[in-house]
Recover the amino acids of this structure.
């Protein structure tokens, strides 16, 4: 089991550009969540996808959008990049199981985005 | 506003020391308190706490939750250099898939 994988590992963009980050969930998982982790901060929840729809969203502008595919993999898109978007972007996957109070989220290694 | 506050933000100890990491939270619709360890990139799950006063233990790590005082601690005994990491305290609220609100983390450095 490869666990959660993310690509690319590192990315450098300039202000105003657009970026797409990719995530493949752990085998058997159907839910993908995206987080932004700025240097020295804890991860901040961006949004969560389940059944190819955005189910929950954190306090992020519309420049941040996403998609989930039928195979449960997901993309995070960020438009009109700002310097402040520089961060580690983490993807986490989990499985919907009836009767559980918390479905453990397994994190990928992240994509380090630098905006110049 | 929901928040999770960890202290200290950083800590330097020597191998063999015992450390206590603190976490206070204000989370509406609170479901559970989680601890994660982040060494390089991917946070890895340590504990989930839902009930007050029940200690969770895994090897040299243990954690307990106080739902009255909205507080949790993570203890690490006989620390090793491999314990060096950022420890994240996380509030879980909402539905079963869990909205997670993270603290800033405590950076633990264990010197040989």
């Amino acid at each position: 089991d490869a666990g959660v994988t993310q690509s690319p590992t590192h990315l450098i963009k300039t202000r105003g550009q657009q970026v797409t980050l990719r995530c493949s969930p752990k085998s058997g998982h159907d839910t993908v969540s995206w987080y932004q982790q700025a240097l020295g901060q804890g991860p901040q929840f961006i949004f969560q996808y389940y059944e190819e729809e955005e189910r929950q969203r954190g306090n992020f502008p519309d420049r941040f959008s996403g998609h989930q595919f039928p195979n449960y993999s997901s993309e995070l898109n960020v438009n009109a990049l700002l310097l402040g978007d520089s961060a580690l972007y983490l993807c986490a996957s989990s499985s919907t199981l009836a009767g559980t109070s918390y479905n453990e989220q397994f994190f990928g290694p992240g994509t380090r985005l630098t905006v110049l | 506003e929901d928040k999770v506050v960890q202290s200290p933000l950083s800590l330097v100890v020597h191998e063999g020391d015992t450390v206590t990491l603190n976490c206070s939270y204000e989370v509406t619709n609170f479901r559970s308190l989680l601890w994660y360890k982040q060494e390089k990139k991917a946070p890895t799950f340590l504990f989930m706490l839902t009930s007050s006063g029940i200690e969770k233990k895994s090897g040299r790590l243990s954690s307990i939750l106080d739902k009255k005082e909205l507080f949790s601690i993570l203890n690490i005994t006989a620390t090793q250099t491999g314990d060096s990491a950022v420890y994240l305290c996380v509030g879980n609220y909402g539905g079963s898939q869990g909205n997670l609100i993270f603290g800033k983390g405590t950076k633990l450095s264990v010197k040989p």
